[in-house]
Amino acid sequence: MGRSSIAELTFRAAVRKDIPDLVALDHICFPEELAYDGRVFEDILDWRGSWHIVALHGERVVGFVAAVPYDRFAHFITLDIHPDFRRMGLGNMLMDAAERMIAEDGFKIAVLEVESDNEAAIALYKKRGYTIRGMLKGYYANGKDAYVMSKVLSDYGDGL
Ligand SMILES: CC(C)(COP(=O)(O)OP(=O)(O)OC[C@H]1O[C@@H](n2cnc3c(N)ncnc32)[C@H](O)[C@@H]1OP(=O)(O)O)[C@@H](O)C(=O)NCCC(=O)NCCS
């Protein structure tokens, strides 16, 4: 059988019953010491005004993006793409859809942290117009540094 394509995927908001699958996906995407447990996903779903999208291949959760409103900013919490579905444009597609919802809700700036040696994610974010605003030394549980990146969401919707 050939490689799956993103044309076979469906998309929807996350629901509570997805949490075990989201935890499992996060543990595939990140090292054990950085992967989120179920409480983080519960917090995302409970956070008033949060934005989240699950990508499904049949019943299987293969991608997830989440952001929450914090002060005047939309703060991305995670972007997870299953290794079987990488380099097909899915990460880009989920970021695009999330940014669109964020802009439609009137938020003008998106912010995220990314591990400073995560070349794939940094390349994706730079391509999407995010710029590095600073570094948080030792930000992650494994002692690694984070870049803080942000983007003005000026390309979406009216009145932005
Ligand atoms: C980073 C990640 C989200 C990228 O998802 P993806 O679906 O493979 O990304 P896309 O296919 O949409 O790629 C879009 C662009 O990002 C860049 N990119 C993606 N993966 C890359 C890689 N491994 N190396 C270099 N650039 C990469 C490329 O510019 C790519 O465009 P191209 O394929 O036309 O060259 C995915 O690798 C992942 O889930 N990694 C583990 C979790 C993670 O690091 N999340 C981000 C945390 S902040």
3D architecture notes:
A 7-stranded mixed β-sheet has the order 1-2-3-4-5-7-6, with helices on both faces. It has 4 helices and 7 strands. The chain starts with 8 loop residues before the first strand and ends in an 8-residue tail after the last strand. With 160 residues, it is of the alpha+beta class. Strand 3 and strand 4 form a beta hairpin. It binds coenzyme A. The site of coenzyme A (COA) has 20 residues, from strand 4, helix 3 and helix 4.
Helix and strand topology:
Elements: E1 9-12, H1 19-29, H2 38-46, E2 51-57, E3 60-70, E4 73-81, H3 90-104, E5 109-115, H4 119-127, E6 131-136, E7 146-152
Parallel strand pairs: 4-5
Antiparallel strand pairs: 1-2, 2-3, 3-4, 5-7, 6-7
Bound molecules: coenzyme A.
Helix content: 25-40%
Strand content: 25-35%
User: What would CATH call the class?
Assistant: Alpha Beta
CATH architecture title: 3-Layer(aba) Sandwich
Heterogens: coenzyme A
Distance between the termini: 45 Å
Residue runs with pLDDT of under 50 for 5 or more positions: none
Number of domains: 1
The tally of helices reads 4
Class inferred from helices and paired strands = alpha+beta
Named CATH topology? Aminopeptidase
Strand order of the largest sheet: 1-2-3-4-5-7-6
Shape: globular
- Find the count of extended strands (DSSP E, 2+ residues): 7
CATH homologous superfamily title: Gcn5-related N-acetyltransferase (GNAT)
**Rg from C-alpha positions?**
15 Å
On the 0 to 100 scale, the average pLDDT is 94
User: Largest sheet, described in full?
Assistant: 7 strands, mixed
